[in-house]
Structure formats: structure tokens, C-alpha cells
Description:
Layout: H1 10-41, H2 48-81, H3 85-123, H4 132-149, H5 189-196, H6 201-208, E1 211-212, E2 215-216, H7 231-272, H8 280-284, H9 297-305
Antiparallel strand pairs: 1-2
Helix pairs in contact: 1-2, 1-7, 2-3, 3-4, 3-7, 4-5
Transmembrane segments: 19-39, 59-79, 91-115, 245-271
Protein name: Tetraspanin
Keywords: Membrane, Transmembrane, Transmembrane helix
Amino acid sequence: MCRCEGGCWYGTSRCYIGLLNIVSLLAGFVLLGMSIYLIKYFDGYEDPILVGLGVWGPLAISIAMIVIGIFGVVGICCLRKLNGCAKCSLSFYLVLSVVLWAAVLVVSSIMFVYASTAQQVADDPPYDFDGAAEDLNTWQLAVWNKCCFESNYSTIEVSLCGDDPVNGVYPGCENQLDTGDLCSCYTDQEGYDNIASKISNEGCSVWEDIRFKGNQWVGDNTTSGCGGGEPRPFQQDFATYVHDYVFPVGFSILGLALVMLVASCCSCCLLGSDAGSDGDAYKQTRRHDDGTLQLDEEESETIALA
């Protein structure tokens, strides 16, 4: 190996990108298969953020990994052919790597913010919610009323939050175990009606398959399903699930971002060496200690015919 322009190791960069993109292709196809399974698994979920993180996010990343892997492998193979296709392929690879790097940072940020929002909804009074927290709270309680109350897994129907407390209890919280600030109610009636109208029995059956540390999120309250019959523990179970799912995936995505950042630097190194334009960088890697050029069998035959 020899140094290329900028002090990078040309050979190391080539090996890194080559191995990375073989792994990227394999991992991309595996993730694509998992994404197809998740499309069926999340069918009936009404939370757009959870569906996006659980289905469309992995699907988009898998396709990006496959496309990037193809360009990377083609670019490395072109280096061996001593022609100009390497620069073209590596240029596309560099652009796609930077785009994927930025995308995974955005996705991981959304995942961490979503986990924080779910925890806020589980721990804070509903009267203080706005924006994403209000939307998530409304969606959770629509699921509660449609899948827990109407399915007779609980006798508590959650309603619109009242404006002023009576003897320390807000209207809408009188029949709940946790009264006052820690009761569960929603503040957006129009948003609630819109979400509730889209939740079907089939959607509820999907949620019955979800378990948080052994407890069903939607299910018989005598076996800890539906928060044991209380809406606030129901919301806390959801926050636990999101935390346990999102954080490992989020940190894994950050690891992918780091790998892609290094790959981008290596592709810059190869492009900066003018590799693939006239074969000089490749030829330099095959010189003997005495300075003579090591030729492969095809090149030797070409010289002999000349």
C-alpha cells in the first residue's frame, strides 16, 4: 500500500470500502426481508410515527444499503480495470453515502425524540401536553377506549379533559384510580374522533400480539393486559415498550452513521488519488521494492503481442 493525496492510505481505503459494501449488500437484503415481514406485522397500526419507525424507516434504509453497496462494489471492481468507471461509481457512492449518513442521523434523532415524548405522556399531567405529546396521548387513549373499554377489558372510559378541578379532581378523571394530575384524558376532541374512527377490531387484535415485559398492551386486565384495567399504567406500558425498542435500534443506527462517515472519507481518498482515470494509483500499489512494475498475466500477454 502507498499513500494517496491527502495522506490517506489508498490500499486501506479500497479494502475498507470493498468489504463494507459486500457486508452492506448482504445486510441490505436481510433488512429488506425483515421490512417486508414488518409491513404485515404493523398492518392496522394507526400511529404514523411508530409505523414509520417500524416499517418504512427500515425499508428505506435497506434499499439505500443495497443501492450504495452496488455502487461501491462496482467502483472497487473498476479500480482493477484501469479505466474511468471507478471515478463515476465512487462519485455516486460518495454522494449516496453522505445522504444516507444524514438520513440515519435524522431517523435516530426522531426515534430518540419519540421515546422521550412517550415517556413524557406516561409521566406528566395531560393538561400540559402540546404538539407531539398531545397527539400521542390522544392516539393512545383512542386505542384504550376502542380496544380496552369497548372490548370489556376495562370499565373505565377515558373522556375529554375538563377545564377546572372539583375537589382536586379534574372532570373526566372521577372514575380512575389515579386522580388529579396523573389521570388520563385527552385535550383534542376533533383529533380523538378522527383517530378513533380509524381503529377497527382487526387493529385491536394486532395490539393484542404486543407484549411489554410479558404483559399484553391490549388484553385481559386480569392478566395485566390493558394496564391492569387502568389507563395510566396502560400508557406507562407503552412508554416502556418504546424505550426498550427504540434505544437499541437508535444506537445501532448511530453506529451505521459512523461507518458511513468513515466510508465517505475513504471514497474521498480514492477519488483524490485519481484512481481509475489512468491506472497510476493502481499500478503504484504493484511496484516491486526495486521500482519495477509487477504485471498480471493479462497485461504481460498484451505487451508480448505488441
